[in-house]
């Protein structure tokens, strides 16, 4: 299982230092949450911050767009350094077009599903995907409690994907005690914010999470 620390829980006044601290634990990628105050009730960052992060890490950047009309900003985020761009199924009127655009821009394409959104939403875009992100909280804030129904949803998503080489990520309230079952149900990426950046030793938190997934 890949471990993806979410910078939503980092100290933005010392972001470069916090990224360096988690890098010591050898995570696989960084998860970057972008919120617009419309799709979710919070505001975070834009392409300028993604560009600054890109200059300070060699880790792949998974940019998670929790915004309305994401297609308007895809080129900006890819240009800023996003390796993978994830849009919400609920925010895209023309989901297939948005996914195709992400790939045409040279990035990998992902779709996020809110807790109440059924996996069937993906039925006709399965071959346009590089990642499915199963939200295990309602998006908008860090530090929320993991919603257990995500386990069954994760298994259903993995079954839908079949043999396709598509990553399945879980984001929201993920702690070390969750990752073993997440891996068993088919998750290939665990996104964790406060469980890593809020730990006394973020690098050790990354290592513990990976070890728990491999048991």
Walk me through the structure.
The chain is an alpha/beta fold and 215 residues long. The chain has a single domain, classed as TIM Barrel (Alpha-Beta Barrel). 34% of the residues lie in helices and 19% in strands. It has eight helices and eight strands, in the order βαβαβαβαββαβαβαα. It has helices at 15-23, 47-54, 74-80, 95-104, 150-161, 176-185, 194-197, 202-214, and strands at residues 2-5, 30-35, 61-66, 84-88, 108-113, 131-135, 167-171, 189-192. Helix 6 runs parallel beside helix 8 (202-214). The protein is globular.
Instruction: Give the strand order, joined by hyphens, for the main sheet.
Output: 1-8-7-6-5-4-3-2
What is the count of helical runs? 8
Look at the structure and name the CATH superfamily: Aldolase class I
CATH architecture: Alpha-Beta Barrel
Question: What profile does the largest beta sheet have?
Answer: 8 strands, parallel
